[in-house]
Each structure stands twice: as C-alpha cells, then as structure tokens.
Amino acid sequence: MSTPVQENLVSKNKQYASSFSGGSLAAPPAKKYAVVTCMDARIDPAAAFGISLGDAHVIRNAGGNARDALRSLVISEQMLGTTEVLVIKHSGCGMLSFTNEDAHAVVEKNLGTEARKELAGLDFQPFAQLEQAVEDDVNFLKACKAIPDSVKISGWVYEVETGKLRFVV
Questions:
Q1: What CA–CA distance (Å, rounded) separates 146 from 74?
Q2: In 10 A of CB 92, how many CB atoms?
Q3: Residue 96 DSSP symbol
Q4: Predicted pLDDT at 1
Q5: Are 142 and 84 within 8 A, CB to CB?
Q6: 3-state secondary structure 18-84
Q7: Which of 65, 76, 99, 118 is 20 to 30 A from 154, comparing alpha carbons?
Q8: Rounded distance, CA 104 to CA 146, Å?
Q9: What is d(CA 47, CA 8) in angstroms, rounded to the nearest whole number?
Q10: In whole numbers, what is the pLDDT of the chain averaged over residues?
C-alpha cells in the first residue's frame, strides 16, 4: 500500500519526466562547484542560489555541516573536478536549538536505552553561534589535507525570513 507521499512522488515524477531534457548532461558539474547546505525544507537551493540542472553538486545535511559532507566533497573534487565550495548555513537553523546531550536524551526518551547506546559517542554537531559555525566549517575545510589549497572555499548565511544571502567568510 502506498502512502500519500509516495503517490505524490510518482505523480510529480511522471509530470517532470514528460518534459525532461537533461538526460545528456555530464556527471561532473558544469560550473565546477559544490554547495554544502542544510536539509531544512525552507531552503530551495536551486531557486535561492541560482543553480540550474547540471551546474553544481548540492550536498545537504542537518546544519549544512562540512564534516558530514567531507566524503561527498572529496568525491566531488577529486573524481568530478569541482574547484570551489560554498558552505551555506541559515538563520533559524534547528542545530542552534539543542546540545548533544539534548539530542541523546530525546533518542533515549523516544526510542529507549538501546537506541541511545547505539548512538553513544555520536556528535550531532549542534552549534550555538551561526556565523561562528560558518567560519568553523570553512576553516575545517581549508585545513583538511583531503581538500587541496587550490579549491576556493567561502561561507555564507541564507536568511530564511527574507530569502537573502550574506557573505560571512
């Protein structure tokens, strides 16, 4: 039995596929850059950041975290030729609202002790200061030996309230 979400997926995909013309695009991004941003549903990277199909790799995770994105960034740069990384966090991010202890406690409350044990040692990587978190991620990538010095790395904040971007570092 399918869910309403699955039914919407199939319906919207059928609509999309009926006029799809991007099948001949190459796997490497045409504009040779990658974006690391949050999984927040209020962010539409293609629309907000001017990314057309085939332009860039968009790597999304909780908080737009560079450490979580490292595997994908190495593949993007080493195997697919990207030469620039944009780290884009956002205002109102949920990662600003809890600590690691809070996250582990919620898991235990909702799923039990065994689930908490399974996640023991997991750093959910929350942050208390938005701009500092952007700067920390940019510095992490710049210091990372797996990302060449030739890769340009910058950090930004997307304001979910206005749709505007602002440069941080």
A1: 7
A2: 14
A3: G
A4: 77
A5: no
A6: HCCCCCCCCCCCCCCEEEEEECCCCCCHHHHHCCCCCCEEEEEECCCCHHHHHHHHHHHHHHHCCCE
A7: 99
A8: 30
A9: 21
A10: 97
At residue 103, what are phi and psi to the nearest 5 degrees? -65, -45
Q: Is 38 exposed, middle or buried (0-12, 13-18, 19+ CB in 10 A)?
A: buried
Q: What are the pLDDT digits (tens) for 112-130? A: 999 999 999 999 999 999 9
The alpha carbon dihedral of 7, 9, 12, 13 has a sign of negative
Burial class (CB in 10 A: 0-12, 13-18, 19+), 34: buried
**H or E segment to which residue 133 belongs:** helix 130-143
- Say if CB 149 and CB 93 are below 8 A apart: no
Question: How far apart are the C-alpha atoms of 113 and 100, rounded to whole Å?
Answer: 16
3-class DSSP state for residue 157? strand
CA torsion 141-169-83-80 (nearest 10°) is 60
pLDDT under 70: residue ranges of the chain: none
Return the structure tokens found at 108: 């235990």
Nearest residue to 141 (alpha-carbon basis) of 90, 88, 85: 85
